[in-house]
Amino acid sequence: MKKQLLLKVGLCAVCVTSILFACTKSNQTAEKAATADPISADVLKSISDLGFSTTDVHKQGDNYLVEDDILLTPANFAEASTSPNLRIAETEQYRTTNVVKSLPRTVTVSVSNLPTVYATAAANAVARYNALNLTLKFQIVSSGGNIQIIGFNEGPSGGYITLGSSGFPTSAGNPYSQIQMNTNAQAYGSNPNLGYVTSVIQHEMGHCIGFRHTDYMNRAFSCGGTATNEGASNVGAVLIPGTPSTADSGSWMLACSNGSDRTFNANDKIALNYLY
Fold it and tell me: Under a CB-based contact definition with an 8 Å cutoff, are residues 155 and 186 in contact?
């Protein structure tokens, strides 16, 4: 997930197989990041085949950052979708090809080496999911959770700052195992707001259990900038029946945060109940 930085950087007061999503915030006046190394035509084709934009692709180690906030791993390029339900360019709720299986099920969540506000936010996010009485439950444990929340410290880059990142369920039906939360002061400020941090963890947990961004077909809806359609895809965007055919400004899975405590709206609950 990401959020727009409205002030210049330094003056700021205050989205097995895995695809990592980073919540970030945009800074219209921040300096652009340095130009990334050239990406080979074969890699760009693989990214396009997965249904992601090939504009501004950046290499990070063995992985590739696409669409500002999605990290594709080599394993992603090796797995294709077999789903017949793929739909593109509609403003509705979408899930990934892989979802959590073996329901009913309780997924444990742990927080390691992070300030107290992150642990409290994780507990609050878990409580929000459990209040929906889904067949998929969550439970906070002291360590070694099925989903482990850890920290990293990274400042703004290319007009955005990462708030958090996570990934998709494995092909075996297990939730993605890690959420990374940014402890840099320009992400949440020197005194992070509990509700705001809760909403980002809640969003990243959504990715871990198989949800894509609600506005993946046009990230400009929540992020601003140029409207972008990902085009034809063969993986990871399966329409969830019963969700709206118009833009949904309140969804917990929008690509960019508006800085508020955003939780489930009525359409989000429909999507969650449909899957779990």
Answer: yes
In the chain, the domains with their CATH numbers are: 2-275 (3.40.390.10)
For the stretch 64-99, what's the b/e string if a residue is b when 16 or more beta carbons lie within 10 angstroms of its beta carbon? bbbbbbbbbbeebbebebebeebeeeebbbbbbbbb
CA distances from 219 to 1, 68, 144, 180, 247 (A): 11, 10, 34, 22, 11
CA distances 260 to 23, 79, 90, 130, 188, Å, are 13, 36, 25, 21, 11
Q: State the CB neighbour count (10 A cutoff) for residue 135.
A: 11
Name the band, by pLDDT with cuts 50, 70 and 90, for residue 79: low
pTM of the model: 0.77
Q: What residue has token string 């039906």?
A: 173
Q: Who contacts 54 (Cβ-Cβ below 8 Å, separation ≥6)?
A: 39, 44, 47, 48, 66
CA distance 219 to 49: 19
Give me the residue label for tokens 């899957």: 275
Nearest-angstrom CA–CA distance, 196 and 254: 14
**Listed residue (275, 39, 269) closest to 131, CA to CA:** 269
Going by C-beta distance under 8 Å and a sequence separation of 6 or more, which residues neighbour residue 190?
none
**pLDDT per position as a tens digit, 144-165:** 999 999 998 988 877 778 898 8
Instruction: Identify whether the C-beta of residue 262 lies closer than 8 Å to the C-beta of residue 254.
Output: yes
Rounded CA Rg of the chain? 17
Cis peptide before 104 (omega within 30 of 0): yes
Residue 228 pLDDT > 70: no
* Average pLDDT of span 250-259: 83
Instruction: Compute the distance between CA of residue 212 and CA of residue 67 in angstroms, rounded to an integer.
Output: 13
